[in-house]
Design goal:
Shape: globular
Number of strands: 12
Order of helices and strands: HEEEEEEEEEEEHE
Distance between the termini: 25 Å
Oligomer: single chain
Length: 245
């Protein structure tokens, strides 16, 4: 598993060098952006990794923190008629199973997304709790020069906690861009960590694939997993691979 994880960045760059047309969506690591580039009938598969170790504390001993284990998320989403979509996911930490339904569209020069999801999470041995996650996001329908900013908000019905996320994607070429995101803690101080979650990195888009590589301080996934903050500001390696079929 560790050797495979180490080889994935090299494989992604090789694919990018050989590709022609690029993946139709930009996307962010944890922010749910409007799905304006996908079409009815498209199925999107995704794999996310958040490595646990500090990437720079002892980079040669534990390979930039990758040998310390990882949180992993598997996801799938299908685009339906009327700009609707259905998704399912599983995250390793907390054994979180999730399902969601969303809508993406454009109006008044803006890209819009609304999503409602249900999840079941393990909170202790043989005990699970379930809840709902409501999310919405907005971005310019067209890039502002080369920049695509996005704002997202959400609410977790189980924890009764709101969430906020700000992000942006800076286009370098048809295949490459830089991205960054921050999830400012806006919930009850007694229920959140001291540090806001953040991440930044590079995206490589190829035909049928999107590869995102970055550094961040949270091991959580998505807005629900990051909006309560992070335990520290240590930088950890993370990546996401999406495949369109």
């Amino acid at each position: 598993m560790r050797k495979t994880a180490r080889l994935l960045p090299a494989a992604a760059l090789l694919c990018a060098a050989a590709a022609g047309a690029v993946y139709p969506e930009n996307g962010m690591m944890d922010i749910g952006t409007p799905l304006l580039g996908l079409e009815q009938g498209d199925i999107e598969l995704s794999v996310d990794h958040r490595f646990l170790g500090d990437a720079f504390e002892d980079p040669f001993e534990d390979f930039f923190g990758a040998d310390m284990g990882a949180n992993v998320r598997l996801g799938a989403r299908m685009i339906l008629p009327s700009q609707l979509d259905l998704g399912v996911s599983y995250a390793r930490f907390g054994s979180v199973w999730g399902a969601s339904a969303g809508w993406s569209g454009a109006a008044a020069g803006l890209g819009l997304r609304a999503q409602a999801g249900f999840y079941s999470q393990e909170v202790s041995v043989d005990e699970r709790e379930s809840g709902g996650m409501l999310e919405g996001s907005v971005e310019p329908a067209e890039r502002l020069w080369r920049l695509q900013p996005v704002v997202s908000g959400g609410y977790d019905t189980r924890t009764e906690m709101p969430g906020l996320a700000l992000g942006g994607d800076l286009l370098l070429s048809d295949s490459y861009s830089l991205w960054g995101e921050v999830m400012p803690v806006v919930g009850d101080e007694q229920e959140t960590a001291d540090n806001s979650a953040f991440a930044f990195g590079v995206t490589v888009r190829t035909y049928g694939h999107q590869f995102m590589f970055g550094l961040g301080n949270s091991t959580g996934m998505g807005l629900r997993g990051t909006m309560a903050g992070a335990a520290d500001s240590d930088l950890r390696l993370n990546f996401r691979i999406k495949r369109l079929i």
